[in-house]
Structures are given as structure tokens and as C-alpha cells.
Amino acid sequence: MPGRHLTDHQMRLYMKFRQTNPTAVAAAKASIGIATAYRIEKDPKLPSQKAPRGRRRPDPLADIFDAEVVPMLKTAAGLRPIAIFEEMLRRHPELGGGVRRTLERRIRAWRAIHGEEQEVIFRQVQVPGRMGLSDFTDMGHAGISIAGQPLDHRLYHFRLAYSGFEHAHVVLGGESFVALAEGIQNALWSLGGAPREHRSDSLSAAFRNLDKNAAADLTHRYEELCRHYGMTPTRNNAGIAHENGAIEGSHGHLKRAIADALLMRSSADFDALAAYRCFIDEIVSRQNARNAKRIDIERAELQDLPDRRSSDYEEVSVRVTSSGGFTLRKVFYTVPSRLIGHRLRVRLYDDRLDIFIGGTHLMALPRGRAHPSGKHDQVVNYRHVIHSLRRKPMALLNLVYRDQLFPRQAYRQTFDALLEQLSERQACRIMVELLAMAHERGCESELADQLAVCLQDKQLPEIAALRTRFAPDPARLPSVVVQLAPLNAYEELLGDSLTGDAA
Length: 503
Hints:
Layout: H1 8-18, H2 23-29, H3 34-42, H4 65-75, H5 81-91, H6 100-114, E1 131-138, E2 145-146, E3 149-150, E4 154-160, E5 166-171, H7 177-191, E6 197-200, H8 204-207, H9 212-228, E7 232-235, H10 245-265, E8 269-270, H11 273-290, H12 292-299, E9 314-319, E10 325-328, E11 331-334, E12 343-348, E13 352-357, E14 360-366, E15 377-379, H13 386-389, H14 402-405, H15 409-421, H16 424-440, H17 444-456, H18 463-469, H19 487-502
Parallel strand pairs: 1-6, 2-8, 6-7, 11-15
Antiparallel strand pairs: 1-4, 2-3, 4-5, 9-12, 10-11, 12-13, 13-14
Helix pairs in contact: 1-2, 2-3, 4-6, 15-16, 15-17
């Protein structure tokens, strides 16, 4: 075979087969090449009886390896062979690029004999029900988009070390305790039990940019979460990824499965975030189906779940300002103006905010995040401010969150077209009327389609025509008939009550 020396046994086999077979057939039966067979024909001496073959050409590294390369290897143990090769070319341009592989093999052989000791990975015996692992993995390379908008997200990934049970949860923000708590609990409740030990990667990303007190608070909350489910929290050493290898390796398997499914789907764009989450759940469930027998074995060894979930949110208190909203984590959120001056309780989840006043749940808002540069962001619902904006339409012109106010791209483009062709006052008044119409008539999507047609035809929208188009259909209005009772009937009732009182 190529790269292997001929042995006495192979040569004897060839000579035996050669007695009854042609050269090519005998060589194939003896597992040697035809060229080797012809060399045997010329020289039938056994390999063990031949003198070792010397070099066919001079050693190009004879003068420099011990004198220059070895001192470099001794001085800097982690130096890469390619760096040494490039340095040798600078010192000795006559070497040429053909010696690279020779130099790499020579360095590898030297390190095997004289190099430093390397870290040993100790394979572990996994016991059913003992260990579950959590980690986050970035999904930026997948190119996922929601309704045409790129989705910046990660996956929270949970795995049982013994059976390979997996759970993946789409995380819209960074690696935070809220995302970890929600992901762990979703995984455990879908599994129906909890392992005795939970391992994470030190939550380093969750603690980034936090002061010592905040990091200690998150550590305490993480320990309390594990205690709620009867799990012992453990962490791998910082920077030692293979200590979390039972889940680090499965990241690649999961990502490749997602990539394959996206290719078969022929698109990485989804209509809504819920559709993408269902897509991920389906892929993970297929992988769990392959390990169903081992999962059933491990499920029997898991601890029982508590009566209820633990909190997987952060709760903060905010005050609604005269701007019709509140600012939280460098993001401004609008709320109905009737809440101005009130203090609200906000439960902060990874993808939403639940708003409470006292113990009453008011609404849920999508969670926004500040820009990586530190610039503030806004989450605006035009329905919260349109009633006030109709009284002051010119406020739209220089509104801080004007771009976020428009619910769809067609509205934003229409306002730009109005500003180009009309005065600022007219443009603001017409745009506010369009937003009010979308709110009052419940026709946001349909009105956006009509505005897109006007933009395509390079025409401005006509408010009167749009009001007529989206006016209620008289045929669909309910017919209400009110039958009024005669007034003397009330007098009779009044007379009867007076008579009863007298009696």
C-alpha cells in the first residue's frame, strides 16, 4: 500500500501467487503495488536481507534544523510550524516552498521526543439521571430572518449527558440569567424530571460588564434556581471548553442539522418568530427520537419536578413619564397615556415585558435592546399616542422616535414622499390622519397595501378616497330596533308601589 514499506510476509505471498497468476493479479492478492511487484521480479531478495535505503537527495534542513529551528522550539514551545517556516524563508530564501511539509514533519517528530507534556482528557462514565448541561451557541452564521428582517439571536442548548436528550430555545438577547432560567425550566418540564447535577460554563457571558455585587447576586439566583429543582450546580473551569464537551460537541451536530433543514426548506426566512421556534423544536424532536430508548431509561432515574416553576424573569419598577412611556435598560417603551404618572411593575423576560399595575396585568410588550454602540432604542406603538398626536400633528416632524412610530415600511416611505412634494405642515397632518385611520378602522395592513400602490404609481394618497374605501359597510351594520314602552306603564308601576307602601 502507498506509504508503507514492503514486508517479508507480503513478498512471500506475492512469490506464491506469482507461480499461478500474472504479475498484476499476484500483486493485488498480496496487497502490493504493481511497481513493487516488478521490483521484486528484478531483485527477489527479502526486505529484511537488504541494507537500509539511504536518502535519494541531500537533506535541505541539515544545516539549519539543529542550529536554528531547535533553539526556537525550546524557547517558544507554542510556536506554530508555519511561523517557523516563514522565518526560515526570510533567513534562507534559497530553501523554497517545497520544504514546508518536510519541516512540519521534522518539528512534529522533535516535539514527540523532546516536547512538553500535553493535557490529558479523561473520558467519563455517564450515569443515568446524574448530569445535565447548559450552554449558549451563536446562530449568526445561519442567516435567519423574520419577515425579511435579519434575526440576531442565539440558541440556549440543554443536554443530558447519558441519553443525549436535547432541548433548544431561541434567545433574542445575549447570554443572561433570564434566558438561562427560562431555557432550563422549559427543558426540565418538557423532559418531566430533573438531573441531580447541572453544569454550565461559569455564566461568564451573563456576568460580563457587571460589578462584583451584581455578579454575586446572579450567582445566588442561579444557585437558588438549581436548589428549587434539587440540582447541584457545577461549572467547568474558565476557558476549558472540553470540560463541557458533552454539550459543546453537540452544538456542531445541532447546527449542521439546522443548516441541512434550511437547505431542504430552500429559505432561511420565516413569517414569524413563532414559526422559526416551531422549526427548531421539530429538528430537536427528531434528534431526540433517535435516542428514545436511552431517554426512557434516563427518565426513570430523574428526580421529580417541584409543584411549580421558579421565576424566570427579572422584576423592576418603572414610572411612566409625561412622554407617554418609560425607559428601561436604555430602551424607551410607550404605554397608554392614561398610565402617565403611575408606577408600574415590569417583569423582564428574554423576549417580552409583562406590565402590571398593582396585581393587575395590563399588557405585554416586545422587548427591545440598546444598540451595541450604547445608543438608546425605542419600542413604540402608534396606537398609544395617536390620539394626542392628532391634536399636535407637527410634533411628528422632529419626533425622537419617529422612525419607530410607523408600523410598516409603506407608512415610512409615504411620509418621505409627502415631505418631498408638500409643505411640512401638510405632510404631517396627512400622515397623522393615515395613522389614525389605520387605528380607528382596524385596517393597518390593508391601508399599507394601498399606500404601497400609490408609491408605485408615484402618487400621493387621497385621504377622502381612503376614508370612503375603509368606511364600515352599511350592509354589514347590525339593525337595532328599540321598542319604547308607553309612559303610562311607568305611572301604573309607580302607583302600585305607592299603594303597597301605604298598605
